[in-house]
Amino acid sequence: MNLKSKIAVILFVIYGVILTYLYTAPFSIENAGHNADKVVHFGIFALGSVLYLFLVKSGIGKGLCVFFGTVLLSIPFGLETIQGYLSYRAYDNFDLLANYVGIAVPLFVYFSCWILKRFRWFSWFLFPVYTTFAIYVQLNDVFSKLFTEKIAVVFDIALFFSVGLLFFHTFTIKNKVLSGFFVLFLVVFPQVLKYMNPSFGTSKLLLAYLSFLTARLFYDYLKKPRIQKEPEVSQKKDF
């Protein structure tokens, strides 16, 4: 096991210990806001999923990958069940759902990126599906209904950013005319949402454009060629 694998395992174990403490400690965040505890559950297990991906990429071997993967999938149900037996905590099916959604999202993003990198045509399928989902979410104010205002803003930013990033991956082409036509979509898209949904205010409109701009800058950064330093060759001088 190399150093990177050892660090990954240690981080995952520390994560498990902290997670167990948070689940069994006598405190609650249910009063933090509307469904704020669900967001915390989502975030904690999304972090666990990211750590698992780090484990897999560190090269620990298939056996350990299966073991830690089984642990990651078992922890949400196990800890939530334990909470049901604690007098100061309670079992909640929606918390359990938030846990598994948190695990699933990073894995979905990772494998989607893996597929998009190898099969460019897949983005032509994924983009309209994901954009339809984004339209539904915005027209029905899903985030605002589920969460507090501040949390909803964070999810809105993530949604617009991901739409923009997927858009640039799908439609970035060398032809300036066609490229300009596709970019026009990003200009019109938020305006259409504002027209169709009165609650889609000017602030959210600006938020969408800023998210698209950030997505473009991030996409350009990802596509920027990396300059690899050539190893220095020591030359011995003969005297």
Task: Quickly describe the structure.
This protein is an all-alpha fold and 239 residues long. 76% of the residues lie in helices and 0% in strands. It is flat.
Question: Which characteristics define this entry?
Answer:
239 residues; mainly alpha; 2 domains; 9 helices; 76% helix; 0% strand; flat; transmembrane helix; transmembrane; membrane
Order of helices and strands: HHHHHHHHH
The description of the largest β-sheet is: none
Given helix and strand content, the structural type is: mainly alpha
In what range is the share of β-strand residues? Answer: under 5%
SSE topology sketch:
Elements: H1 3-24, H2 36-57, H3 62-84, H4 93-118, H5 122-139, H6 142-146, H7 149-171, H8 176-196, H9 202-223
Keywords: Membrane, Transmembrane, Transmembrane helix
